[in-house]
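Quick look at the format.
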Amino acid sequence: MTDTGKRQFRLRSQDWFDNLDHADMAALYLERFTNYGLTLEELREGRPIIGISQSGSDLAPCNRIHVDLVQRVKDGVRDAGGIPIEFPMHPIFENCRRPTAALDRNLAYLGLVEILHGYPLDGVVLTTGCDKTTPAALMAAATTNLPAIILSGGPMLDGWSNGERVGSGTVLWRVRKEYAAGKITRETLIERVAASTPSAGHCNPMGTALTMNSLAEALGMSLTGSATIPAPYKERPQCAYQTGKRAVGLVEEKLKPLDVMTRAAFLNAIRVNAAIGGSPNAYPHLMAIARHAGVELTAADWNEFGYHIPLLANVQPAGEYLGEHFHRAGGIPAIMTELAGAGQLDEAAMTVTGKPLGETLKNLRRADRKVIYAYDTPVRQKAGFKVLTGNLFDSAIMKTSAISDHFRKTYLSDPGKTDVFEARAVVFDGSEDYRSRINDPALNIDERCILVMRGAGPVAWPGSAEVVNMQPPDALIKNGVDSLPTLGDGRQSGTSGSPSILNASPEAAEGGGLAWLKDGDVIRIDLNTGHCDALVDEEEIARRKQDLAYAVRGSETPWQAMYRASVTQLGDGAVIKGADEFRNVTARLPRHNH
């Protein structure tokens, strides 16, 4: 329990509840908190006030476990001498939010910043789960620099269908190809997808949800070993209790997010992302968090510190198992231990435990080698993102851990052209265009084509959509060709196993090269040099640019218009322009309100 008598500083909340200069203001701030049962004594005796950001609701099924889980957080806060105050976070549900949940990350971030800045909170437990709740929370933690700790809700239990282990999300990309080939009915498709979600929790493959919560742990912002605990396991509420207790400790120790989220921590996260076969959405999210933390992180860092890292996690979509087995095999601590043993982890990086990362990894049990491979004998070599550049964009990423043996043999193994391929572009303007024309025989799509999606970036969509992972025409699928190279200025679900070229920045709507690309242009991708170029001469490119008039769909809500006017490109994290200039905002107390 906290000992307020020994504390050598005044808490932030005391300026609200125990203001020595303005008794009238203290009275105003105190009185409404008593109307649901808190006492004046509790609020005035100098206990840390710990906010609990409630991200769970009926509208956010992946985070809904937090509706009950926060009680254990509150128990932990109370037992450590603090006072818990729960408040709502803007809901984010990746699967269901239209036109895309990417709109909500920045909106949820703004809401969190205003709450953490403007209310009498000394620290906060940020509950996370679904994809964008985690980066939104970490972005807000970086901006406010209020003592903060992440508590994820954990993945679902393993899903099974027809005796086969199936991951939520991942199964959809598989069965929709079977449906396109005429092998299953519409009802079977729906039933098999539903079978992949057997319990409470977020996605159970290494999609964006599990990736980002794993990277929160790698950054040092959650308790070591907490990210992968399945939602239904008893260890999850136990972890919630310990997280609540630790939140009070962070306040007493004055340990803040910017003490933890250093450049060393971000480089650790890049390495861990490669080792787990993390979602391609990790790139814009980590870039966004780093910008708000004031940490310089560049595209070159991903090539230098991540690309050479081998894939160690045998987890779908790049492997065989799911989150439950990954946790039982040792989870993120086992991955980080392998990296540390190979000299690929900065063990001195601080964590919210109050100990350096290396200290938290001591005395861990040996990993299950069916699920977590040794660094020297990995699932595959060089599994990090490859950041590309060329005349079509300044930057884009390719998730190399998803390159299958079939894809490598078909596209990356031509004699004398290892890791180089050329393909004829078939260009689509948005997912509606793709869906209406993909089966048009006149497009003459064959195995040497690359499907290009434009109009899917932060400005054009708006928000950037997960529509780049396009499947081939039904006719090709029926003939056994179930994947083609794809490229786009949008994103791709982390549960997809497609090695697409994603996040092309700038997007077509902002003058990127995809705007002038035409059907039939040949695109050359060279993973050795990191280049991706349309083989079109400079004079022709210049002529096309002169005639260019790229139109986008109009905004449908006020926030969409505001988002479009303020957002940066995916290569920069798709953050709000100028928001990264605000940092450590809780260091200065806000003005009184009356």
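Next, a different chain entirely:
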Amino acid sequence: MILDLIHPTEYQLHLFHEGNFFECYRLFGAHVLTIDEKKCTRFCVWAPNAKEVSLVSNLNNWNGSGYEFKKVNDEGVWMLIVEQDLTGYLYKYEILTSIGEVLLKSDPYAFFSEERPQTASICYPLDGYQWNDHKWLQKKERNKVYSSPTVIYEMHVGSWKKKEDGSFFSYRELAEEIIPYVLDHGFTHIELLPLVEHPLDISWGYQGTGYFSVTSRYGTPHDLMYFIDQCHQNNIGVIMDWVPGHFCKDAHGLHRFDGSWVYEYETEGDRENYTWGTANFDLSKTEVQSFLISNALFWMEYFHVDGFRVDAVSNIIYWPNSNGQRINDFGIAFLKKLNQIVYQYDSQLLMIAEDSTDWPQVTSPTHYGGLGFNYKWNMGWMNDMLSYMEKGSHERSQFHDKVTFSLLYTFSENYILPFSHDEVVHGKKSLLDKMPGDYWQKFAQLRLLLAYMFGHPGKKLLFMGFELGQFSEWKDEEELDWHLLDYDMHDKMNQFVKELIKVYKRNKPFYELDHLHEGFEWIDVNNRDQSIFSFVRKGEDGEPLVLVCNFTEKTYEEYKVGVPKEGTYREILNTDAVEFGGSGVLNKKPLESIDESFHGREHHITMRIPPFGVSIMRPVKHRKERKGNGKEEVRSYAVSRRARK
């Protein structure tokens, strides 16, 4: 009776081998079931070329005798039922290959694993956690993804902060630390480097062995559920780094799973990822498609993740090791299929391509011929801006186009502007240390770069530690340099970041039309000699913000800037403010426009331009107030508020 009820259906098996079983985790792996009031544990694995499969566990003293799997179909699905609740037991699969090898493999679908360096899977039922994020989910359904403010804080769990003894915070402990911090700074999302089980700390999770297994370094799956639940209850979205292109080659993982190339390409040149020492998933295999798409849906269903940053998309679009010369039609078809399926489950999900190529229509819907992502990292902008900023100010006039070039293509895709972990590690230096000049100039130019970034069309992503003004690059085995906040300039940098994000979120022109030409226009794009760039950002109501960015150390007391409309302009942010560590070259008083053509516009303002600084100006809104004598006078909101005080 038990065997009949828990045996996989022909339909499930057909879908799996067809590449369309998107909830494989319900069948494969270890599941504790109750049938006729009896507890049993079902194990199911795909090993198409195995001769025998046995369960080895601390249940049976790691001896598979008597715990042999039955082969369910000719395509290599194997199953074992143990009439016992094995929750908490350690296990592996002992696989006899076609050439007589005996392999000990972790369960590809295990929900939990031993903490490294141990490698056994753990039978761990995922039910039992009570979610309390229903308000977040309702809000998310109403969210307008493209026209909302988005500032993502990218973090590596193991090195953000550590305990005094150097050990890791657990997921639950981390929730108490990171959530108040993120709220204080104003970030809208946390992006976590991969949390799948992985053997090597310094791979940061990008070389995984357990795609369905939350890494045990920081706690249990329920602990991670708690972390994400708490984020959602505080209106913080959670994005997870996800790696569907390649996997770790450690002996207990997916590599040569049954002695043959089960999950990876058979041809060495396609299989071997020589850069990272990993193996590339064979995306032509329908069972691999079922595995990977199921994995995405698994994280969505059980952990309520709000999005995926899909790693190394170029390694999927093009055949590995071809240097972008050979298009991989299997990879392209997989990406389209992936995006189609996940949006059927959650139309508000963030699917973010980390793609360094110029492949077209990455963020266009699949029915229009696109890959179907809704965002793509703007790697070109990132490389150009860092290259530009690393030049001395006297050289920048020769590289003017590095700043302007991105606006030729920025509306061709839905972009996120990233300063990610990849740019501040392995000898690349921290963002602050990339800036040339003396101590003061480095801080001034980092503020300049960040303000320009927030003014440029596109959502924002920044890797942890930038807000502290770290001089040292990311040290992945140590915590951030929190002691820097005891120093004046670093504390002021941190305060600047908070204010910058606050101004960004309060002003809709910064984000409402991020992906439309109507949201941006240059005022002066050609001032190469002075390296000053001025432009307008607009929101849906057409109200403008004027940004003037000075990439040299020179100060200008009377600088003319054409403005989009007449009226009074007020400075809402100046990166050179003393409270941010600047020299105090501000525009403290409102500036009245002058009816005189400049920069091709009918009106202009004359303003102060700070050294290595950005000034953001907003037209003052007016309202009519009726005095007792019946006369009307136009007064600004700001003046009216002061009068009320």
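The two ends are 79 Å apart (CA to CA).

See the schema section for token definitions.
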